[in-house]
């Protein structure tokens, strides 16, 4: 007896089973990823709220104006913004089914992402060397938590990017790989938006206050 998902029809060659529904519908994948992004929004909203509360609790220690190198942060911000643009170019090539140019743009995106993470680690190392580690004050604890959480997301995005480049190289631009690239595109642009908030709310307002 056939299940509700399958129907059986008779033919000269014997029974033939027809699957009436897709086990991995594209809309279901995209919806699930949107739900994940919404949960990430809540995480960052909480971290921004914590920084808003503790961002001026210096414990007689250094303030943002004393610590932040705004030109360096501006360069770092440009790295992430450029990576978002190059990922957009990769998506345009994907729509044209041009695999090699798409892979080139993805590689450039990954390099910009690595530059962003590298500059962020350099900034952290400099602050810790100056005695402004996360244990110094509530301000620095909330700062390191917020910025490093974003940096961790970018690092995982780079790993995801490299994995997809390997999969595309092995299997081509099949529908499944295109769907995965679209999910990563949403994730990457989401991190871009979050960083603009970090740059404005944490760095820019901190230096100008």
TrEMBL record:
**Transmembrane spans:** 33-54, 74-92, 104-122, 142-166, 187-208
Record bears the keyword Membrane: yes
Q: Tell me, how does this one assemble?
A: Heterooctamer of two A chains, two B chains, two C chains and two D chains.
Q: Which gene encodes it?
A: cyoC
Superkingdom per UniProt: Bacteria
The name this protein carries in UniProt is Cytochrome bo(3) ubiquinol oxidase subunit 3
User: Entry's Pfam families?
Assistant: COX3
Q: Which PANTHER family match?
A: CYTOCHROME BO(3) UBIQUINOL OXIDASE SUBUNIT 3, CYTOCHROME C OXIDASE SUBUNIT III
The protein's job, in short, is:
Cytochrome bo(3) ubiquinol terminal oxidase is the component of the aerobic respiratory chain of E.coli that predominates when cells are grown at high aeration. Has proton pump activity across the membrane in addition to electron transfer, pumping 2 protons/electron.
Keywords from UniProt, A to Z, are: Cell membrane, Electron transport, Membrane, Oxidoreductase, Transmembrane, Transmembrane helix, Transport
Q: Where is the Heme-copper oxidase subunit III family profile domain?
A: 26-207
Q: Is Calcium given among the entry's keywords? A: no
Q: How does it sit in the membrane?
A: Multi-pass membrane protein
- Location of this chain's protein in the cell: Cell membrane
Q: Which protein family is named in the record?
A: Belongs to the cytochrome c oxidase subunit 3 family.
This chain's source organism reads: Methylobacterium organophilum
Say where the protein is mainly found. Answer: membrane
């Amino acid at each position: 007896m056939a299940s509700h998902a399958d129907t059986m029809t008779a033919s000269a060659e014997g029974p033939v089973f027809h699957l009436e529904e897709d086990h991995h519908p594209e809309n279901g994948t995209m919806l699930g990823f949107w739900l994940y992004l919404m949960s990430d929004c809540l995480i960052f909203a909480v971290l921004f709220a914590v920084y808003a509360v503790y961002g001026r609790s210096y414990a007689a220690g250094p303030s943002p104006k004393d610590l932040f190198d705004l030109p360096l942060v501006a360069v770092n911000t440009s790295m992430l913004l450029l990576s978002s643009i190059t990922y957009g170019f990769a998506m345009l090539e994907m729509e044209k089914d041009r695999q090699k140019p798409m892979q080139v743009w993805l590689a450039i995106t990954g390099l910009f992402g690595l530059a962003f993470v590298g500059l962020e680690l350099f900034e952290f190392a400099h602050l810790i060397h100056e005695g402004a580690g996360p244990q110094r004050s509530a301000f620095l604890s909330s700062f390191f938590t917020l910025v490093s959480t974003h940096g961790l997301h970018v690092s995982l995005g780079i790993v995801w990017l490299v994995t997809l480049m390997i999969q595309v190289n092995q299997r081509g631009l099949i529908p499944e790989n295109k769907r995965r690239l679209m999910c990563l595109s949403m994730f990457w642009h989401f991190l871009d938006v979050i960083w603009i908030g970090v740059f404005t709310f944490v760095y820019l307002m901190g230096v100008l206050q």
